Amino acid sequence: SQELEQSPQSLIVQEGKNLTINCTSSKTLYGLYWYKQKYGEGLIFLMMLQKGGEEKSHEKITAKLDEKKQQSSLHITASQPSHAGIYLCGADLQGGSEKLVFGKGTKLTVNP
Amino acid sequence: DTAVSQTPKYLVTQMGNDKSIKCEQNLGHDTMYWYKQDSKKFLKIMFSYNNKELIINETVPNRFSPKSPDKAHLNLHINSLELGDSAVYFCASSQVRTVVREQFFGPGTRLTVL
After folding, report:
1. A39 Cα to chain B: minimum distance (Å)
2. What's the structural domain count of chain A?
3. What is the average per-residue pLDDT within B30-53?
4. Based on the number of CB atoms within 10 Å of its own CB, is A69 exposed (0-12), middle (13-18) or buried (19 or more)?
5. Domain span holding position A84
6. Percentage above 90 pLDDT, chain B
């Protein structure tokens, strides 16, 4: 079974709409990383969360880690076509490990 | 300047061949990684080197052999290529003695085995 579950698998929204992507684990998320991948390119680091209840924002993207440190959400406000891509969550499930386990990704399409 | 670079970007080869993918980072990081992303976009770690020493070695066939000649380079050599090796291979690097420790990824190498 997958250690990190992402939902939804894909998402199609109209430009200007808000959306949320979830990342859930049955294990403690000691470090939770959100990345964005565009086709044919590598992963671009967005944000990292470590503490339960932590929330970070960058431009129109906000990421939260729940108090139990087993679920994270990525929220995009007023989506734009430039937000399109595959969003991946990666996590340190061992604590202090360099090994990141990744979810299967959420493919976001933003229609103008 | 490219932070993490990989060559080649595309690699098409026949089953049974041996091939290498090269990775270089100019960020001064002490840790480098190889990931495999399969056709379903599932990204999974294969290896990690810290200061030229192997620290992560997932369940990967021994046909795959990483080599780190120095801290800035981590190459991946694959012997006797099989159809199932077709995937996108990503190199990444990080600096472990930092708080955030985000990994910087290369653009990927798309390997197609025919």
Report:
1. 10
2. 1
3. 89
4. buried
5. 4-111
6. 72
Of B6, B32, B28, which Cα lies nearest the Cα of B92?
A: B32
Contact residues, chain A, for B56 at CB < 8 Å: 98-99
What is the residue extent of each domain of chain B?
Answer: 4-113
Smallest Cα–Cα separation from A42: which of B108, B99, B85? B108
pLDDT for B59: 78
Percent of chain B clearing pLDDT 70 (strictly above): 95
Q: Among A101, A52, A106, which residue's Cα sits nearest to residue A79?
A: A106
Mention the CATH class of domain B4-113: mainly beta
Interface test with A, best of B47, B58, B102 (most A CBs within 10 A): B102
- Indicate the residue of B41, B92, B108 with minimum beta-carbon distance to A105: B41
CATH number at residue A94: 2.60.40.10
Residue closest to A30 by CA, chosen among A3, A45, A56, A50: A50
Give the per-residue pLDDT at B100.
67
CB A21 within 8 A of CB A106: yes
Q: Say if CB A79 and CB A13 are below 8 A apart.
A: yes
Q: Provide the pLDDT for residue B25.
A: 96
**Amino acid found at A96:** G
Using alpha carbons, select from A16, A47, A43, A31 the residue that is nearest to residue A105.
A43
